[in-house]
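In this supplementary section we document a worked example of the pipeline. Step one takes a protein sequence of length 502 as its only input; no multiple sequence alignment statistics are reported here. Step two produces a three-dimensional model, which step three serialises into C-alpha cells for compact storage. The input and output of this example are shown verbatim.
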Amino acid sequence: MAVTGDARPVRTYGNWRKPMSAGLGGLGSLGTAILLVGLVAVVIAIMVAGFAAAMLVALLLAAFLGVLVLRDRHGRSGLQRVAARAGWMRARASGTHLYRSGPLGRVPWGAFQLPGLAAPSRLSEWRDSYGRPFAMLHVPVTRHYTVVFATEPDGASLVDEEQIDMWVAHWGAWLASLGNEPGVEAASVTVETAPDSGTRLRREVEAHSDPDAPDVARAMLRAVVDVYPEGSATVKAWVAVTFSEAARSGGRRRDPQAMGRELASRLPGLTQGLHSTGAGAARPVSAQELCEVIRVAYDPPAARLIDTARATGQVPELTWNDVGPTATQAAWDHYRHDGAWSVSWSMTAAPRGEAFASVLGQLLAPHGDVDRKRVTLLYRPEDAAQAARVVEQDKRNADFRASASNRPTARVLVAQRAAAATAREEARGAGLVNFGAIVTATVSGADRLPDARAAIDNLAATARIQLRPVYGSQDSAFAAGLPLGLVLRRHLKVPTEIRETL
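The serialised model returned by step three reads:
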C-alpha cells in the first residue's frame, strides 16, 4: 500500500547566541576604554618624559591588551588563563584544595559537612499544599533557596516526532514562565546515569512472585534477577529551581520560615507545568532523598548499601551533616572524593547551526567507560523587561561591530543577523534564557580517568558542543553539577558583568 502526501519536515532548533559587548576588534566595552586611556597615557608620556618612556608605556599597554584579545578555541583570553593558574597556585599554597571531615577532620564540630561552595548550605523540610514533603536548601552566602523535583522522563524511543516537538515546546514555555515567577534566580536539570545494583529488580520480583507458580517460571525469574543487572544502568533526572530571598530587586528579604510557607503554595503549579514537558510524574524531593543523592555522589559505593537497606524495608536516616565526604583532594584536572575520581567539564560553545531535538541523546545515555555520569544543564531565565533590554543592546552592539569596519568579516555579519533574529523573536513574545552545561564523569580508579576523558570528548562531538575541563576548579564544578541549585555567578569575586566587558 503506497502512502501519498508530503512528508512532514523534521523540526530543527538553533540561533543560540551569547550577547556581545560593544568594542573595537576583539575587545569589549571595558577593554576599549582601557585602550583609549592607554593611548592618552602614551601621549602624556611623550609630552612629559620623552619618547623612551612613551615606548615603554605603549609596550605595557600592548602586552596587556594582547592577553585580552588573544583567545583560545574556547573563547578564554590569556588574562583568564593566567588568573585561573594564579588562583590554583594560591589554593595549593593555602591548602584549601584538601578537605578532611568527621571526628578526625579539620572542622571543629566533627561532622561530615559538605565541602566548598555547598559548605554553608542548610537543609529543612516542608510540606506543600498537596501534603507532599519537600526539601528546601538555604545558602546564606548568596541568599538563595532551592527546591528539587524528581522526574521520570519518558524518553524519546518509539515516540512520534509530533509528540517530541510538543514536549520541546512545552519545555521552552516552562523555562520562559520562570522569568515571570517572582524571585526565581536560576534553574538546572541534572541527568545521572549509574550502574544498576539489581536490588530494585530483585525486590520487585520477590514482591510479585506467586509461590504456586511453575518451577520453570520461577527459575527463569531467578536467572533474570541474577543476570540482567550486569552491565545495565539506571537513569535519574532532577530539576532544581533556585529562588532569591527577595521577590524583586530591592524588595523585602524573607527568612526560611516565610520562604518555606510561600514555596509550599507555589510548588504544585511548577510540578504541574513539568508534566507536559516529557518529564513524567514530577514530584518534590524530600530531605531524606536529597541527602541520599548527595551522599552517593560523593561516595558512589554507598549506593549499593542504600539500595540494600531500602530492599529490606529500612530507611537510612541521614542528616545534612552526614552527607559530606570524609576526604577530598582537588587536583588541576581531576577531583578525588572518598573512593572515587571525577573529572568535570563546562560547555564553552552551544551547537552551531541547526540541531535536532535528539542532539544530546548520546551524551545523556550511559557509557561503559564511565561508572557514573552527570550532565547538568544550567538555566538563568530573564524577566520580560530585562530580556527586552538585553536583546536590544545586543542588537546595537552587533550593528556597531558590523559598521566599525569597511569590510566586516562573515562571522560578524552572521552575528548581526542572529542578533536581529533574536530581537524579533523576543518582540513576538519569546522568552530569553541564558544556559550552560556541566558534565561530570566519575570512575572507581585513577587508571580509568584517561578512558573517561576520551569517552566524554567523543560524546561531546556527537552533541556538537564544545566542552572544556574546568582546570583549577574541579571541586567547585563537581558541586555545581549536583542538583543543589548553586548559582556560580554569585560566587565569583569578579562579577560576570565586568568579565563580559573585557
